[in-house]
Amino acid sequence: MKTYLRFGLLVVAIIGTLAWLAASGISESKTYYKTVSELKHMPASEAGRRVRVTGDVVPGSIRREGEHVRFQIHEKESNQMLSVVYMGKDPLPDTFRDSAQAMADGKLQSDGTFHANSIAAKCPSKYEAAPGKPAAQPLNSGKPTSI
Amino acid sequence: METLGAFAVLLSFCLAIYAFLASLLGALKKKPFLIASGRRAVYGVFVLLTTAAGILVYALMTSDFRFAYVAARSNQAMPGLYKFAAWWGGQEGSLLLWSWLLSMYSAVVLWTNRRKHRELMPWVVVVLSFTQIFFCTLNSFVEPPFQMLAVGKGVTAVADGNGLNPLLQYWLMAIHPPALYLGYVGFIVPFAFAFASLVTKQPGEAWIATTRRWSLITWGFQSVGIMLGQGWAYAVLGWGGYWGWDPVENASLLPWITATAFLHSVMMQEKKGMMKVWNMVLISATYFLCIFGTFLTRSGVVSSVHAFAQSSLGTWFLVFLCIGISVTTFLILRRLDYLKSEARLESVLSRESSFLFNNLILLASCFAVLWGTLFPVITEAVLGEKITVGAPFFNKVNIPIGLFLLLLTGVGPLIAWRRSSWESLKRAFRWPAIGLLATVGVLAAFGIFHVYAMISFGLCAFVTVTICMEFWKGSRAIAAKNGYNLAHAMIELTHRNTRRYGGYMVHMGIVIMFIGYTGAAFNLDTTKEVRIGDRFQIGRYDLQVKQVLDGDNANYSWQKAVVGVYNSGDYLGDLQPERRVYAASQQPTSEVSIRRRLNEDLYLNFASMSQTDANAAIIQAYVFPLVSWIWIGFYVLMFGTLVCLVPSKVKYSYAKTQVVGVYAKQAEPAK
What we know:
- The structure holds two protein chains of two kinds.
- Chain A is an alpha+beta fold.
- Chain A contains three helices and seven strands.
- Chain A has two domains: 1-30; 32-126, CATH 2.40.50.140.
- A five-stranded mixed beta barrel of chain A has the order 2-4-5-7-6.
- Chain A is elongated and about 70 Å long.
- Chain A starts with a helix and ends in a 20-residue tail after the last helix.
- In chain B, the strands form three sheets. In chain B, strands 5, 6, 7, 8, 9 and 10 form a six-stranded antiparallel beta sheet that branches. In chain B, strands 4-13-12-11 form a four-stranded antiparallel beta sheet, with no helix packed on it.
- Chain B has three domains: 1-169, no CATH class; 213-412; 522-625.
- Mean pLDDT of chain B is 86; it is low at 655-671.
- By secondary structure, chain B is α+β, with helices and mostly antiparallel strands.
- At the A-B interface, helix 1 and strand 1 of A face helix 3, strand 1, helix 13, strand 3 and helix 14 of B.
- Strand 1 of chain A pairs antiparallel with strand 3 of chain B.
């Protein structure tokens, strides 16, 4: 039985270490999903949180300023705008451009701008059609139906 | 033609149901004719799906834009390769590919085992065709690939299609999905055999022996698929990384981890008759994780950069997973008596225990990745708030796990079965330990004190020495005995036990890949707005933007920056990062330019022209040390896998003295 006890202890030690690493990893990198309007009404107690926010890039708003990129996103549901400054190191994705749906990860600053360190973007009309609609719809080729 | 395609898909759905029912009833009622007809139905499904796939591919190649799928995924100007690759460029087509591969695998399995395993095979067909029914359901009713564009009642065509997503127009991407699918789909075969042996109460290792090659080949394909994905991310996505812990990447990694654990722990069952339940659990987990991975990619449950769109597929997958997992769990629990271990663990310092820890740690990694991937879903369900975790979480957990596994890779082969004494361990580990310390010493001497990097490089040296020692000891003995030279003896040694020495080569590949991954600890990057003619610096390179060119062709228009690379005054050549805008989709892409060398890659991305200064370009420059070793390690790993597949010259039979008694005991209830 001594062998199994030793085993048990080793296993517990390994799992314990990993669980501790996992817990600290989570607290370090957890990011809350928020809508633009939620972000604007965020209580002060949550100010330091990392947030992921989604909206459509306002056409013509993308400005490069040296190493940073400044743009605005617009949330359709609440009709609210948010100014975003991208400060990340990675190049912006190719799909990031006017009217694209952008997802920004970062923190809200006290002046109301959002400092993002990563951006993901999807070009909604070209990437994949929305569910239920045949993919060919954007082509304006008459009414597509399945036969 | 389109009607024929849709009809073939529908008919294959019916035939798969027939194969399922006929085999099930045939096996239960012992009706050989029913079983035989079920088997033929499987061949029928393969023929039908091949027809359907052939029609879709023909439509893609001939740019038949009456097909909604073709119009959405292809266009006239695309090169032939990408027209073909558009087969798996969208949801409907890639699900058809899944289905078709499954039917092909099923047909191959039935053909190669047509005279073997009479009792198992009907149940194998039951599992295979049950999965086939599921995918044919998706093909026929949920995501039909043969939709036509129509105005009123007349079929119509559009002049040109939307084109394949430009990011996918890259040669690695053209073969990445099929390779990954070959791996994904392939694990159904070992699972089907495991399941069949559970149902038929076969106590032995027949299912493992039969599917050993399958497991290895599909594992190999999965590795290829994952690596191609990394290569693509590195060369196309433009952020210089090869792994971002994106949900879809994780989905491909999960079954690979459990499969790796499975490949190791079956050895315990073959040699010691241990871990039988565990192996059943592992192979089932691998299979269900493959399905789960497909589900994650297709359903839009977790948001991902390269997931397919939101769709109604999710529910179908969940139902299938629930049924499958419940049936399998129930069956394993019912058969626990047949899965009793034949030996016990004798010491913590034994080969058995190193396998055990290997499995434990792989499973922990699998669980951590799964947990992180599903974190938004879990927190939304439990806390009512969607929270996601990023790369830091995954790295924090998986880097130590990776290093521990690397250590086990070195320790495992040197440690004896059953129990080892400290004395023998000291002897065995003297040289590897010296290798480790020497490497750490050299790093310190060069002023490199990055902790993980030191551990990683040290362990790489440790494992390399153990592997070399294994080859050296074995081949020196053969050389002395037969008078061969060392190279000849080495080949002879490997040929005598391909699984063992092929396995060492795979380990060596992993070590080399670790060297490459560790290089990431020393990455450099900078973003600069540079006027044409001006210079800037990164690392030891001096970069000069010489000029910006533009032009266009039928598929896309382009603009590229010509950047001269200098190292302390010496001209090393030009790099030409490029930006493209694809005509059909109006989507811009960036084509990075990489100077690949063994010590480091210089990686340039042309972000855009400056918005404030018409004569300045924004260039992102990176230096990635040792990245090439990842790809080199991958080739070594593939070579090792191939070696494992070569039949051994000497058939080793392992004395399993304890086994006999247990067999006799188990034989009785089996009747």
